[in-house]
Design a protein that fits this description.
heterodimer; A: mainly alpha; ABC transporter involved in vitamin B12 uptake, BtuC; 0% strand; globular; B: 350 residues; alpha/beta; Rossmann fold; 2 domains; six-stranded mixed β-sheet; 14 helices; 13 strands; 47% helix; elongated
Chain lengths: 355, 350
């Protein structure tokens, strides 16, 4: 882990500054992203609407209703803010999950969350379960599926012995297989071509369905989650060193793992609820950040969340402009852009996971 | 670190305050149009009782949650967005192409008789995003239920709040049962909405007359045993049962639909039921498609099915999905294909 050229980022003071620079970039990204879209609206019009909505400055007659207002305020801005929140949510969860299972290949969905969510979504789309719950019943069922699965993973890992990272991973695998089997079962018997296509699209993840209502719900959750994990850097660092070392230092990691896992399940559950599953963000953003900052979670958690937010805002922009007239699922973009970049970094730098 | 955390908290709080205040305004705005809508409700209902076919006109349709809703047209729609085959073709058949401001989602080219009208409309080759639909400032959107999904246009309330009406085609997955009857309903409803009731009635009457031939041909004979199948690549089959337009048509045409349930059906079952005629559904996105041959050959070449009457007597007929699924004006073609298949001699001799 010798990265002399990057030592400047490692000192605590510059981390401070770096966070603020990233926050600035994030803010700038949102302002730029909101001007991009398939409808032809001038930059000036976009900002007029936003300034009117936030500060009440401008002519209410022309700025509070109409197609331009609705496009900017109800279609573009919510999805951009949602993309930012999901980015923060997934990269933070990714960092924590990688520490919990002590494995660099972990992503936020690894412990059964993805297949649990798919099962929930499949049941909702093909069997119509929860259709009475409102427009986003698919997301709701996916949330329930993901949450129940991750709780079951924890229970399973604790049966007949204390849960450690290996037991967690194995329980996750087992439940993954079970949920996938149930999903396939439903898909086979429902036999609904359009429904199956819906599921495929749903699983690719998208922030197109963003609404202010959802954002009001997920915003506090994401910020609370981020604040919580930002204060937990000592325990997270310890997790990389393993249970034996932790015990000699007087810490019982098992208890923390459970708490973190519940917190991550809630975070990821909410992201699944509002946008389906967006792959790769939770896996690569933490790695990319570690390459620059080292493995200390004091920095990794905060910096990853900000980088994740910026990354997803731009991924969403790309997904909207790359093919005219249609929107690629954002999950496709994250993998398409993220994977080569990750390979490049891996090849170029001397990288270690820590622990 | 403490300093850093406190700074972070301050930022969060600042953000959430902005978030809350913007939410409030958003909600207020959403409320206003609904209130104004409510206030106009009573005169509309009064008018509805007075006279039929005049505006304001109330039509029953659905929302994405599959609930029954009513939409009210104050006047004939002037700016219409219409997405998917039958939504576009029905409007062209009614001769109201001049009100279409945006269309998308064709599986095949429109029927020849509508080509000229189609050339005048604004067709989005690659589909329309929510933004593009909004920018067109439509007053009416016609589509399938899937188009109002969370990740597409969003549920109908969003559009209703903006005074934009919606209509979801009855056979597009919004109801549990898909029936021939619903195709009529859609055509007649759109006829009412666009003040083209006579034209709509004529289209429906023509289809009904063609359907009636089926029962006439079947009179006094043993009902023909028929199946509507889709054969998949892996050698399994999907049956179009009573709750699909294809299956419903078989019964309406006086034949016997031997498997009533929609869903998977095995070759073994088909062999033991021994249907006289099999209609095999193909997706024809391209005119000369591989799917067409496959649809026939997968049944003909199936060794286990060689003793089935339909195979022995070479009575396997391909039928386009677009003619039996959300078929609109193509229902007519579906009916003709089936009549030819079920009653070849009678149909020729008429």
């Amino acid at each position: 882990m010798s990265m002399k050229d990057n030592n400047f980022i490692k000192s605590p003071k510059t981390i401070w500054g770096l966070s603020f620079i990233l926050l600035g970039i994030l803010f700038f990204s949102i302002l730029t992203a909101v001007t991009v879209g398939s409808a032809n609206i001038s930059v000036e019009q976009v900002y007029r609407v936003i300034i009117f909505q936030i500060f009440g400055i401008g002519n209410p007659e022309s700025l509070s209703k109409g197609a331009v207002h609705d496009i900017v305020w109800y279609i573009r801005l919510p999805r951009i803010v949602l993309a930012m929140l999901i980015g923060i949510c997934l990269s933070t969860s990714g960092v924590v999950m990688q520490a919990i299972v002590k494995n660099p290949l972990a992503d936020p969905y690894i412990l059964g969350l993805s297949s649990g969510a798919s099962l929930g979504a499949t049941a909702a789309i093909l069997l119509g379960i929860g259709a009475k719950l409102g427009g986003n019943y698919v997301g709701f069922c996916a949330f329930i599926g993901a949450f129940i699965t991750s709780i079951m993973v924890m229970i399973l890992a604790n049966i007949g012995g204390r849960a450690n990272s290996v037991r967690l991973l194995l329980s996750g695998m087992a439940l993954n297989a079970m949920c996938s089997a149930f999903s396939s079962f439903i898909v086979y018997f429902a036999d609904d071509a359009e429904g199956i296509r819906d599921i495929t699209f749903w699983l690719m993840g998208s922030v197109a369905g963003a609404k202010w209502k959802h954002i009001g719900l997920i915003f506090p959750v994401v910020i609370l989650g981020l604040t919580f994990f930002a204060t937990q850097f000592r325990t997270l660092n310890l997790m990389l060193l393993g249970d034996e070392v932790a015990v000699t230092l007087g810490k019982d990691l098992n208890r923390y793992r459970t708490i973190y896992l519940v917190a991550v399940s809630i975070l990821v559950g909410f992201s699944v609820y509002s946008s389906g599953m967006i792959g790769f963000v939770g896996l690569i953003i933490p790695h990319i950040v570690r390459m620059f900052t080292g493995t200390d979670h004091k920095k990794v958690v905060i910096i990853s969340s900000l980088v994740g937010g910026i990354f997803l805002v731009w991924a969403d922009v790309l997904s909207r402009v790359i093919i005219k007239g249609s929107e690629l699922p954002i999950g496709v973009i994250t993998s398409l852009v993220g994977a080569p970049f990750f390979v490049y970094l891996l090849a170029k730098r001397n990288y270690g996971f820590g622990g | 670190m403490k300093k850093f955390l406190s700074a972070l908290l301050v930022i969060c709080i600042a953000f959430s305050i902005v978030g809350c205040s913007t939410n409030d305004t958003a909600e207020n705005q959403e409320k206003n149009p609904t209130e104004s809508e409510n206030s106009t409700e009573s005169p509309i209902e009064a008018a509805k009782e007075e006279g039929n076919g005049k505006y304001p006109l109330t039509i029953e349709t659905y929302n994405y949650k599959k609930e029954n809703i009513e939409v009210t047209f104050e006047e004939k729609p002037k700016r219409v967005v219409t997405v998917y085959q039958n939504c576009i073709e029905t409007l062209l058949a009614l001769g109201v192409e001049d009100v279409i401001v945006g269309a998308a989602g064709l599986d095949h080219d429109v029927k020849d008789e509508y080509k000229e009208a189609f050339d005048t409309i604004n067709y989005y080759e690659k589909g329309m995003t929510k933004e593009e639909v909004m920018a067109l400032e439509p007053d009416f959107i016609i589509s399938w239920s899937s188009y109002f999904g969370e990740k597409k246009l969003g549920d109908v309330d969003f559009w209703h709040d903006r005074g934009i009406n919606t209509y979801i085609m009855n056979n597009s997955g919004i109801r549990a049962d898909r029936k021939l009857e619903h195709e009529y309903t859609d055509i007649l409803n759109l006829g009412k909405i666009f003040d083209k009731e006579d034209e709509a009635q004529q289209i429906v009457d023509e289809i009904k007359a063609e359907v009636a031939k089926g029962k006439k041909f079947a009179k006094g004979k043993e009902p023909v045993k028929a199946l509507v199948l889709q054969s998949r690549k892996d050698g399994t089959f999907r049956n179009y049962g009573q709750d699909s337009v294809g299956g419903d048509l078989i019964t309406e045409l006086g034949a016997d639909l031997v498997v009533k349930e929609s869903g998977n059906v095995t070759a073994e079952e088909i062999a033991s039921l021994n249907p006289d005629v099999i209609f095999t559904v193909y997706y024809s996105y391209y005119e000369a498609s591989v799917e067409y041959d496959d649809a026939i050959n997968r049944l003909k070449d199936h060794k286990g099915l060689s003793s089935v009457n339909a195979v022995k007597k070479d009575r396997i007929f391909p039928i386009k999905l677009g003619e039996v699924y959300c078929s609109g004006v193509r229902t007519m073609d579906g009916v003709k294909t089936m009549l030819k298949g079920l009653y070849p001699h009678e149909y020729e001799g008429q």
